[in-house]
Structure formats: C-alpha cells, structure tokens
Amino acid sequence: MAVPSSYDDVRLHFQQIQDDPSIRLDQPLLDKLKLELTEDTDRRVPATLLTHISQLLPLLQEDPSPVTTLATKATTYFSFTELRSIDPPIDFIAGFKAPSPPINLLALSLLSKAGKVPSDAAIVAGDSKLVASLVDLWLSTSSTAVAQAALDAIWALLEIDLASPLENGISHDGDETVGGQGLMWRRMFTDKGVYGRLFSFCDLADDTQGSLPRREKTLAQGRLMGFLVKAGRLRWDIISSSQIPEVEARHSSKSLLHFAACQMVDQSDVLMHMTLLNFFHDLLEIDAPGLMARTFVQSASTFSSPALDFLIAHNLHTTLLGYYLDESKLDPVDLNYLCGPIMAYVAQYAELYPNHFLQNPQSLLDRILSRIAASLAISSSQWAHGPIPSGQLNVLSCLPRVMLVEASKQGVNPVLALPTSPASKEALDALGKILHGPSKLDLTDSIELNASGQTPTDWHREAAAARVLYFMYLNHRSSFWTDIVVAADLLAMKDISLAAISLMRSIITANWHVLSSDVTSSVPGSTRYQLPSEEGLGRLSPASQGMLPSSGAWAALTPPALTTLLPYLFKPPRSYAEFVGGGAGDVQNAVWKVATAKYEALVALYECLGDIDETVPGFEDIVRTLKQRVNEGPWGPVLQNGSRVDTVGL
Question: What is the tens place of the pLDDT at every residue in 462-514?
C-alpha cells in the first residue's frame, strides 16, 4: 500500500509546531497531503496522522480547521473498528468538550462511523459517559453546524440500532434489514443520566448550577422538538410513554413528548411559540392515514393516528383550530408571526386526515369555509399586486374535494372565487392542486379505504370530485382557458407564466374518476358529501356535445380547451428578440424555463393521449401533430433555433 510523498514532510511540520507552537500551519503542504490520501494509502498513515493531530490540537494558536479537515480526510476509509484499534485510544469525550467547533466536528465525524454497523453502535451505547457527552454537545453548542452533526451522529446510531420493524409498518430510511439490539435506544431513553439531560437542558424552570442561559435553552428546545419528530417516526411508543417516571415528574410531565408539547415552551416567547406550532404540524405527518388505512392501526380509528390522538387528548388540536377560527384569541402583535403556522397546521390536518376532518361538526366545517371565503373576497388589484392570502389558499387546496363539491350546493364554494384574470401565482397553484385530484395511491404498507360508500371520502371519491370541480369552475368562468393561456404567455412575469403552465399540466395529467355508482352513493345515515350523477354533472358543462371527458388529457381536446390550449402548446416558444430585444439581466433564463415547462406539458399530453383508445374523427391527426412537435424539442423546428442563437448574440 502506498505512502503519500508529502507524508514525512507533514510529520516533520507537526513535530516542529509541537516544539514551537508559534509556528504557523503550512496550509499548502496540508492540502497536498489531503489530495494524496486515497483508499489505497497505507493504513498506518491515517492512524499515525490521527495520533499526531490529537497531540497537536491542544497546542495550536490558530484556527485548527486545516488540521481537523486533514484528519477527517485521512480517516475517510477507516471503519469504527479500525479507529478503536488506534493506540493511544481516541478521546471522543475530550473532542466533544473542546471549545472549538472544528474539533467538535472532527470528533463527531469519527464517532458517526459507529452508525454504520449495529455492533459498533452497541459499543457506543455501552459507554454511558460517551453518550451523555454527545447529548450535552448536541443540546448546548452554539454552533449550528456542530448541533446538526451531533444530531446526525445520534440519529445514525439510533437508526442502525433499531431492534425491530415498527409495529405501524414504517421502517427506517432505506428499508434495509434491521439488525440492531436496541441498546442505543435504551441508553437514550432509560439511562437516567442521559434521559434526564433531554429534560434539564430544555427546561426553563431548571436553574440549577451549570444550567444553560435562557437563550441557549430555547435553542435546545428547538433541537429537541426536531429530534422527537424523527424519533416518533421510528418509535412513537418510546417518546409518548413514560420511561423514567422520576425524571418526568421532576419536570411536571408524563413523557418526553408531553414535556416538549405541553410544558417546555414559554408561549409568551413568540418565536418559540412559532416553533411549537411547527412541531405540532410535523407531528401530524407521523403515520397519517391520508386516503388510506394503515395495515397496523394503533390509533383511535383508521382515520386518525397516535400523533393526532395525542394532540386531541391534550387539547392542543382543539386550541389550534380555535386560533384559526377566532384570531382574537391571540395577541394582535403575535398574530403576525403565528397565523402562518396555524394555517399550515389546519391545512396539514385537512390533507392528511380527510375523513377525520369531515367528521367534525358541520358548524365547524362551515366556519372554516366562511373563513376562507372571507379572505378571498379581495379586489382584482390586490390579486394582481398583493398581499395575497397565501395561507388561506393553502388551507383551501388541502380541503377534501367532496367537501368543496358539497359547499357548491349551498353556494359557498371558495374555489369559484379563485381568479384566473388577473393572474396570481398563488391562486393558480391552489387551483392546479385542487383540480389535479389526489396523488396516486401507494399501497406498500396500507390498504385502500372502503370505496363502497362507508367513509365520507376515499381516493376514488376525491378523484371524481376533482373532475366535478373542474367542470363547475369551467361553467362558472368560461374564460378559464383563455385566461390561462394569456398568463402563460406573460414572459415578463416568469413566476405567473410558470404557474399557468403548471396548471395546464396538472389538468392534463389529472387523477380523475368518472361518477360511477360506487362513488356517488351516500354514506349510510348521512346525505352529506354525495357527489352528483354523471347526468347531473352534464348540466354543468359549457360544452354542447355529448358525454363529458373522463380524463384531463381528453378535456384538453374538448372545447373550450381545444381552441385555446392546443394552439398554445403547438406553437413554438417566443424568441428572445420578440420578448425583450436586447434587454439585460436574467431574461434568457426566464425564456428557457418557460419554454422547457411548456414543452414538458406538451410531452405530458402526448403520453396521456397514448393511453386513450378513441376513434373520434381527427384524434389521430392531433396525436400525429403532437408527436411531430414533441420530436422538435423545446425550441421548435431546428431552423428557428439558429435565429434564436443569433438574437442572443452567441
């Protein structure tokens, strides 16, 4: 195995600094050695370098980064077992306690290698002081980079040490076979010294000697909340149930999750209150059912999840819904910061728990619709120039579509208030999400909800409702496609142009379902959320011919899209000269992005039409023209490309 040519020079350089610490580091020499270190380097070289560096670091009188990065590079191909064989042994705890972020990062880089093999993680878990020191560094450091590296190291150890697949069916990232013994989990959550640190470092009421200042404690609180979301995805049981009652009682809590969610944060600190609301938002993602039911159910119903059950049980969920519906419950100054996270929570709840959401009292759902409708009742000037009610648009786009169809029966469907002229990026994005329909099902660890009318909604109902809403909107706003094409051609307003093209593609690739008997049947004991029949929907169509399109791609070939959308997609993109004629700035980038997005919409239409078996006169001609245009690429015919290049001056 090879020995780098600069290795001896670096060793001599390190010895000179040890003899005279005032000597400056030779950066070029260290960089040269870094380049020479490869997987084929003699294994004694990195081991010796690491020993020299550990002796050198306490003596350095300058930034140790050149040395620590050299050590990191030298040990790139070392396993944790090889690191443990170095004599004298690496003092990880000293590296964690050093008041130097570069040294902290080096120690963390070396320790994180234990997160690749379960047996190495078990070795780390066996050292209580080492794990406690790692947690100390993670929660107390003022360096964001060090805190993230510490969390990454902790997480790698926990993930590789997971003893068994989760009962709820979610395995760790990568879906690799789990081979750990759970020792690291037990060290973190059942060792009084380690588990207690998760509380004491974050408890504002803990003013014992050596505790962190208030500002540092709030940083630790944010780190703990982020960690709990990750840990909850793997072991909800361990964060939500009591592990060491003595420790938890000392901090007036019943579990680590209860402490973080209900006791830890001072809500008069508006920034921490924001962080807490974002924490609740992220908790909702854990094992959320969406439009499916998990094969392993640990919650109050197939419509809920353990996370939502927790938020409801501790009145947190009701409180947030109350804040959304009645902003007067919050301080007017705080509201400027909190309204965004509150609306994001409501949107998350509606999207990830649609059937739970629909089982709320009708009065609450009506108030949510009224709240959205009131926020959208703004002037055309405001839609054009702002401010836009983006938070409410997010909530609207996440509501179950069957609820929006139901609202139309009462004449209070907020979707119909969304404008296409003047064009607003936020409104177009919301409209695209609603009309596209639900995301494709992934039944890897789930089962499809009963589609025979036993639940308020399911994937097929949402897909059918998206199609209904499209025709409702088209009937309400007959200029829809004309407005969208005009917006797509606004190259001077790139974001609006891209949003309009994205809306086109959302409809072309829409996940729709026809109004068959299984989706139009009512839920037993209720008349709510019943979709119209195909015949009833036909009365909503602005088109005069026969059966309504069953897919978004087919809708693109039906008036009024046929005479507006298709000509726009077939037309080559506007040239740079036509757009600005020699302007400066980022213009060519805008032209390219719009042309590419338009081409992708064209390709999507061509691919979708390939799945349609139709014998309508003229259909084959359209497909043939589409294929020709697709083959020409984003910029159209080759002959026009030359003129574009000339125009730009290339």
Answer: 999 999 999 999 999 999 999 999 999 988 899 999 999 999 999 999 999 99
Q: Is the peptide bond before 101 cis (omega within 30 degrees of 0)?
A: no
Query: Are the CB atoms for 111 and 153 separated by under 8 Å?
Result: yes
Residue 292 host element (H or E): strand 292-294
Confidence of residue 527 (pLDDT cuts 50, 70, 90): confident
How deeply is 590 buried, as exposed, middle or buried, from its count of CB atoms within 10 A (0-12, 13-18, 19+)?
buried
State the Cα–Cα distance between residues 548 and 546, nearest whole angstrom. Answer: 7
- The answer to whether the CB of 498 falls within 8 A of the CB of 546 is no
Q: Facing residues of 20 across strands?
A: none
Handedness of CA 504, 612, 443, 294 (dihedral sign): positive
**What are phi and psi for residue 41, nearest 5 degrees?**
-65, 140
In this structure, are residues 371 and 326 in contact, taking their beta carbons and an 8 Å threshold? no
- Per-residue pLDDT at 171: 44
Per-residue pLDDT tens digits for 158-179: 999 998 554 334 444 444 445 6
Is the whole-model pTM more than 0.85? yes
CA 611 to each of CA 332, 459, 579, 605, 625: distance values in angstroms, whole numbers, following the listed order: 54, 21, 36, 10, 17
Torsion of CA 158, 164, 169, 172, to 10 degrees: 30
Let me know: does 644 contact 616? Beta carbons within 8 Å: no
Q: Which residues have a Cβ under 8 Å from the Cβ of 228 and sit 6 or more positions away?
A: 239, 256, 257, 260, 279
Residue 440 identity (one-letter amino acid): K
Give the integer Cα–Cα distance in Å for 378 and 397.
Answer: 18
Q: Which two tokens stand for residue 29?
A: 């020499």
Nearest to 439 by CA among 415, 463, 457, 456: 463
Give the angle 446-447-450 at the CA atoms, nearest 5°: 145
- The answer to whether 235 and 180 have CB atoms below 8 angstroms apart is no
What is the separation, in whole angstroms, between the first and last Cα of the chain?
A: 51
Closest CA to 579 of 595, 602, 596, 600: 595
% of the chain beyond a pLDDT of 70: 87
User: How many other C-beta atoms can be found within 10 angstroms of the C-beta atom of residue 492?
Assistant: 12
528 secondary structure, DSSP code: T
3-state secondary structure of 41: strand
Length of the chain in residues, anyone? Answer: 650
Q: Is the pLDDT of residue 588 over 80?
A: no
Q: Is the pLDDT of residue 445 over 70?
A: no
Domain boundaries, the chain: 361-648
d(CA 199, CA 213) in angstroms, rounded, equals 15
Angle (CA) 494-498-504 rounded to 5° is 150
Q: Which amino acid is at 494?
A: K
- In this predicted structure, the answer to whether residue 62 has a pLDDT above a threshold of 90 is yes
The first and second tokens of residue 335, run together, are: 């509201």
Do you find a cis peptide bond into 88, omega within 30 degrees of 0?
A: yes
Query: What one-character DSSP code corresponds to residue 293?
Result: E
CA distances 270 to 214, 389, 390, Å, are 14, 21, 21
- Over its C-alpha atoms, the chain yields an Rg (Å, rounded) of 30
User: What letter would DSSP give residue 511?
Assistant: -
Q: Report d(CA 248, CA 272) in Å as an integer.
A: 22
Rounded distance between C-alpha atoms, residue 102 and residue 146, angstroms: 8
Each as own residue / partner, the long-range contacts of residues 333-338 (CB below 8 Å, 24 or more positions apart, any chain) are 333/270, 334/270, 334/273, 337/270, 337/271, 337/273, 337/274, 338/270, 338/273, 338/274, 338/277
Nearest to 374, CA basis, from 385, 389, 353, 359: 389
Are 338 and 271 spatial neighbours (Cβ–Cβ below 8 Å)? no
